[in-house]
Design goal:
- The protein is mainly beta and 813 residues long.
- The chain has 5 helices and 42 strands.
- The strands form 5 sheets. It has a 22-stranded antiparallel beta barrel. A 6-stranded mixed sheet has the order 8-9-14-15-12-13. The chain has a 4-stranded antiparallel sheet with strand order 3-2-5-6, with no helix packed on it.
- The chain is globular, with a radius of gyration of 29 Å.
- The two termini are 34 Å apart.
Length: 813
């Protein structure tokens, strides 16, 4: 079916290209250097309406400098040719006969002002740290939202569920004007879908983050730069969805500008109704050949709400005051019904019980920040910024377990409660000073972070007929982590070479207290984080080399000492003694940004104190007997080495047809010692993503997304791969103010079984979760009002990206 769809897309493109009006003529020519007479490959050619100066269509010259395209001679147009380092060339097409011959470009690089009618900029720019897509230079920008624009950016891809991938990976950061957003971290697709592309100046894809960013082992950074010019007026948009699996959702967004004051904000709500799937586990012990089998059902429901508000006040041309507030809140609920059976070596039942679990997880978050930016009269690019940010993200879990149908199992019914979260105060100062031959950036930052976890377990007492607190599983945990850092970065650019080097010094202090147990954990350490980038530029391509160190600090998910007994035979807990993981990263990339953009890269990274989820056997008191059960936690266990290849290709040579392919292949080597045993594991990981989209006339568009994602490799095991497909059909109405879309995700299979395999010297375990796979959705977008740009924001701000993303240690959820 995929092949048939692609064939249909190409065939439609062929028919469309042949359906030009009889009044069209073929325009062709060749672009050359006026001095050397050498051809200029991949120059940007733009058709401008002579009457209003608006761009109609963009073209790009071939590698030999030649170009050709069909032109409707009934329209009065100018052809503007732009090439980096050369003055723009303007040619009137009125009365053109077709062959423009040899067109010479004069070196000089004086770009005209953006508001000039003939100012045309190349769409793609190669940067030292990555690439930049000039959204303002794309004539299709008024018809797209920010998420649609992401599909056009090299190195990025968007699947049928609107999940954004950077070089095929999801471990990246999305910033708005250099600042991290909690909402972008939670659900960037919903936020970007509500943002019109006309508010964006450019999109930066940073593959080697420099020293000004907090040290974090990321695949890269997507930085969305919004327009700085302000127009009076307002803009309101409404977005919604109906999904057969993920439920309904609604988003309202708006922007308002009056005088020196500006406001931008959005709110959204989504709900996933309760759905039931299968879960299970099989564990085999090597010592006595015994085994445990668990099977049952898992019911899940989710609802969440989120919002964002940003304010801007321009005191004068050199002083800017901005503020922002973000919130999110919701509930994740689960109900499990699971039967557990233990067998001996001859498969006789030794223990059995049924477990009914009801749990609710209430989560919330609040971010509030204020920034003051000072400019300088002599040089407006010289900036001093002071920032403050407050963050609070509590999380409360309530769990109730009821045990029945027991055989040789003596635990009573029990309840668990855990209130955990994070509070942060961040102070930051940044200074930028451009000189003649180089650019200086420097800054200082203090993050005062408090992680907390208050938990208790209560067991049912048959005598008192009430729940009594278990003091051995009740505690108050406070984890204060303060990070003080300074950085200094220098960058320089010559005719063919670009270089950037920087150092970031971070000092971390940790004070952890178990209040009920009167025990403490104290740590102090320093980290010097270097970053170095070097790039050789050619006419249409470049080669870049980058090296940086990253430090990943554990978050409350990995530190939390709360013992999760939702499945009493498989215990999960955090490790408050975890240390920060330090990784070293080296990459080399080749890029060729013609009309069809191509990138290829090789990377290598290693860490000597990798944080891994690990499992060991532990004897516990299960009422009237002692049972040996697996306990899963986190630990700094050893080395983690990764060798990776990345590939990205964007095809846009056929009118109205866009095809992109992103891929990543890696090999990981893991080894380390845990609980007295030495472990060693390695394997291949990777993913590939394909996207094809074709636009018909009258606002119709079809699209196909397909992806393959391999399983991850862990120190003690791996999980299985899966394939994703999505079909999209959309139609615009009312001069592109309304867009309706129909989506079919994975229509062939209703469920997918996600398996995690764990192997230790003591046991082998396979856990699986059944995941809803097939879904159908209808989406709509409606926008009205008039506002050409977003509110003004400071160019520096707080971005706390130093924490390692925590994942649950649960072997079967």
């Amino acid at each position: 079916m995929k092949i048939l769809l692609l064939t249909a897309v190409f065939f439609s493109a062929f028919l469309h290209s042949g359906a030009q009006r009889a009044s069209s003529i073929q325009i062709k020519g060749i672009v050359t250097d006026s001095v050397s007479r050498k051809p200029l490959p991949f120059a940007t050619l733009a058709l401008l309406d002579t009457k209003n100066g608006k761009a109609i269509k963009n073209y790009i010259s071939k590698e030999d400098g030649s170009f050709e395209f069909l032109f409707n001679d009934s329209v009065d147009c100018r052809l503007v040719i732009a090439f980096t380092g050369y003055d723009n060339k303007i040619i009137s097409l009125k009365g053109a006969t077709g062959d423009l011959g040899t067109i010479t470009m004069k070196p000089g690089g004086k770009q005209m002002n953006e508001v000039t009618i003939v100012a045309v900029r190349p769409v793609i720019k190669r940067d030292l740290d990555g690439i930049t897509y000039d959204v303002a230079a794309d004539p299709e920008t008024p018809a797209l939202d920010a998420l649609d624009m992401m599909r056009k950016v090299p190195l990025l891809s968007v699947d049928g569920s609107d999940n954004i991938k950077l070089k095929g990976k999801s471990n990246y950061k999305i910033l708005i004007n250099g600042k991290e957003s909690a909402l972008m971290a939670k659900n960037p697709s919903d936020v970007l879908r509500s943002m019109p592309a006309t508010d964006i100046e450019k999109i930066e894809v940073i593959t080697t983050p420099p020293a000004k960013y907090d040290a974090e082992g990321l695949a890269g950074i997507i930085n969305i730069i919004t327009k700085k010019k302000l127009d009076e007026g307002y803009n309101i948009g409404v977005n919604g969805r109906l999904n057969s699996v993920w439920g309904p959702g609604i988003n309202l967004n708006g922007t308002y500008k009056k005088g020196k004051f500006g406001f931008s904000g959005f709110v959204g709500y989504g709900v996933r109704h309760e759905q039931t799937t299968e879960i299970g586990l099989q564990q085999n012990f090597f010592a006595d050949l015994s085994s445990i089998t668990q099977s049952g059902t898992n019911s899940v429901f989710v609802h969440n709400a989120y919002g964002n508000a940003e304010l801007s006040y321009e005191i004068d041309s050199l002083n800017l005051l901005t503020g922002s507030m973000q919130f999110y809140t919701g509930r994740f609920g689960q109900n499990n019904n699971q039967l557990s059976t233990s067998f001996d070596s001859i498969h006789s039942i030794t223990q059995a019980y049924r477990l009914l679990t009801g749990s609710s997880n209430d989560f919330a978050g609040l971010d509030a920040s204020v920034n003051y930016q000072l400019g300088f009269k002599k040089d407006k690019n010289r900036l001093l910024t002071f920032s403050y940010k407050y963050s609070y993200s509590p999380n409360t879990k309530n769990l109730s377990n009821t045990i029945s149908d027991t055989f040789n199992f003596y635990l009573p019914d029990y309840k668990q409660y855990n209130s955990a979260g994070n509070k942060e105060h961040t102070l930051q100062a940044d200074y930028v000073h451009p000189f003649k031959t180089f650019n200086l950036e420097a800054g200082a930052k203090a993050i005062l972070r408090n992680n907390f976890s208050n938990f208790e377990t209560s067991s049912y007492d048959e005598v008192t007929k009430s729940y009594e607190i278990n003091p051995l599983q009740t505690n108050d945990f406070n984890y204060d982590q303060d990070v003080y850092s300074v950085y200094n970065s220098y960058s320089a650019k010559w005719s063919q070479w670009t270089a950037k080097a920087g150092l970031r010094l971070e000092h971390t202090t940790i004070r952890a207290d178990f209040i009920s147990a009167s025990s403490t954990v104290n740590q102090d350490y320093n980290n010097l984080i270097p970053s170095l980038s070097l790039q050789k530029n050619f006419k249409s391509s470049n080669i870049s080399l980058g090296y940086t160190d990253r430090i990943s600090r554990p978050d409350i998910t990995q530190l939390n000492p709360f013992v999760d007994l939702s499945n009493p035979n498989f215990v999960n807990t955090g490790n408050p003694n975890l240390q920060a993981e330090v990784s070293h990263n080296l990459e080399i990339n080749y890029s060729n940004f013609s009309k069809n953009a191509l990138t290829f890269g090789v990377s290598y990274s290693f860490s000597n104190n990798s944080i891994q989820a690990v499992t060991h056997l532990q004897a516990v008191n299960s009422g009237a007997q002692i049972d040996t059960i697996p306990v899963t936690t986190f630990d700094n266990v050893g080395t983690n080495k990764n060798l990776g290849l990345t590939f990205s290709y964007n095809f846009s040579s056929v009118k109205d047809l866009i095809i992109s392919l992103n891929g990543q292949l890696g090999h990981v080597w893991l080894k380390g010692t845990y609980n007295g045993s030495f472990y060693k594991n390695d394997g291949y990981t990777g993913n590939a993503f394909f996207n094809a989209g074709y636009k018909f006339g009258k606002g119709y568009r079809i699209g196909l997304d397909a992806g393959y994602f391999s399983g991850d490799v862990f120190l003690q095991g791996k999980n299985n791969p899966f394939v994703f497909t999505s079909y999209v059909f959309s139609k615009t109405f009312m001069n592109k103010r309304i867009t309706l879309s129909a989506v079919a995700n994975n229509p062939y299979t209703q469920y997918y079984s996600f398996k995690t395999i764990t192997t230790t010297p003591d046991f082998h375990q396979v856990a699986y979760n059944q995941i809803p796979y097939r879904s159908f959705a209808i989406r709509f977008n409606f926008k009205f009002g008039k506002l050409d740009a977003d509110i003004k924001r400071n160019q520096r701000g707080i971005n706390n990206d130093d924490k390692k993303a925590g994942k649950s240690a649960t072997p079967n959820s």
